[in-house]
Amino acid sequence: MKPELESKFATYPVKAREQLYRIRDSVFCVAEEEGLGEVEETLKWGEPSFLVNGGSTIRMDWKPNDPGFIKVYFHCQTSLIETFKEIYRDEFEYEGKRAIVIPLGAPVSAALKHCLQMALQYHHLKHLPLLGA
Question: What is the CATH number of the domain that holds 80?
Fold first, then answer.
């Protein structure tokens, strides 16, 4: 992990950091399982961000004004959140057209991994109904 990311993760409270690491690990696992190549990991807008060739950027963060949750952000001009809401209407809470809201301590579900997979493959799936789900 890049030093600037390590520094960012160190700023989070323990429970938030643990949850963010679980989601980060899932991004890398999905990319490996799907043969998507190297994950570019960086900070965008001060938040941990992940991207693979052919995918759409995934960001995540914890904010002190909403301390019980992690938010996983997706590009709002894609059909990702709209598709997630269609497929996983009752699985997640959503923040508009840009984020899945994950309670601290919640396990990384198969549904979240599927959402991460669709985002990481977005440019290959965007022409398919429900992103090929």
Answer: 3.90.1150.200
Percent of the chain residues past pLDDT 90, beyond the cut? 77
pLDDT of the residue at 127: 66
132's CB contacts (< 8 A; 6+ apart) are: 118, 125
Does any domain span residue 130? no
Nearest to 18 by CA among 52, 59, 60: 60
pLDDT tens figures, 30-47: 999 999 999 999 999 999
Count of domains forming the chain? 1
As a whole number of Å, the end-to-end CA separation of the chain is 31
Q: Which candidate, 69, 68, 62, 92, places its Cα nearest to that of 80?
A: 92
Cβ density class 27-37: b for 16+ within 10 Å, e for less: beebbeeeebe
Q: CA neighbours within 13 Å on the CB side: how many for 58?
A: 34
